[in-house]
Amino acid sequence: MSLYFRTLCSNSRGNCLTIWTENSCVLIDCGFRSQILCERTLTEHFGHKPQVDGVVVTHNHSDHINYSSLRVLEMHGLKVRTHEKNIDQLQRKHFRGRIFEDLKLIPFSDKSFEMGELYFEPIRLFHHPEYLTFGFLIRYRQKDIWYKIVIASDLCDGRAILEYLIDADFIYIESNHAPELLALYPNYNSHFHMSNLKTSEVLCIARTKSRHAPKAVMLGHLSFIRNDADLVLRSLQTTFQQSGQNLDYKIYVAPRYEESSPIKIVE
User: Fold this and answer.
1) How far apart are CA 123 and CA 78, in angstroms?
2) How confident is residue 1, by pLDDT bands cut at 50, 70 and 90?
3) What is the CATH number of the domain that holds 85?
């Protein structure tokens, strides 16, 4: 049974990723700017009664989860899974005094958990010091083969998760800004995100240590004024070339505001 991935949006104002099989579908983050946009996106992709196993939240920044999205998720009865240590912060920051009586809010711990046919292992990421942030190692079994997918949306130290990237079958990782553009347009919060160079370096090291190439890698969460797709790709190609490592897998750059094309990870 095939396994697919796509982004529905991937930018500093909103992030929503989705991974699915024929029988399972999970959203990773749901950070739409308005209820109208959230509702329209969910119904366009998943129908008026979205067939989604739930939403897994990486952290509580508003571009990943917020009041508007929570209202829509509650209305559709969709499960929202967030780390147990992030529940209080989520309520303080995003409930706005609303009780959310019908919200299916289910905490996860540091242990692995299941969502449909997918197995999620939380990965602690270094991001903003006030926001506990997680990536995920997702495992999927087809017959007797286990496949490994890594999601690392917001982070500032890729080498800390290097062990997870080794021998991954698919990687989604942020490549937020180009250092030369950050120098022209300074932004304090950019220091909590991965630069193109940092992302390129950790992917190059991971490939050197891996026995096989991933099926594909998608680079996302690009800053609007401090990055563009050409700079991302140029950085990756230059880093691999300078290290003597062959860039032998497909590279995708997530569109900021539109959905990406679906990527088939497992045939």
Assistant:
1) 23
2) confident
3) 3.60.15.10
Total of domains in the chain: 1
Do 169 and 266 meet the contact criterion of CB atoms below 8 Å apart? yes
Asked if residue 165 lies in contact with residue 206, where contact means CB atoms within 8 angstroms, the answer is yes
Q: What angle do CA 53, 57, 59 make, to 5 degrees?
A: 180
Query: The domain containing residue 241 runs over which residues?
Result: 3-266
What are the two backbone dihedrals, phi and then psi, of residue 213, each rounded to the nearest 5 degrees?
-80, 150
What is the pTM assigned to this prediction?
0.97
Mean pLDDT of the chain: 97
Per-residue pLDDT reduced to its tens digit, 71-104: 999 999 999 999 999 999 999 999 999 999 999 9
CA distances for 209 relative to 95, 161, 203, 212, 264, angstroms = 44, 13, 10, 9, 24
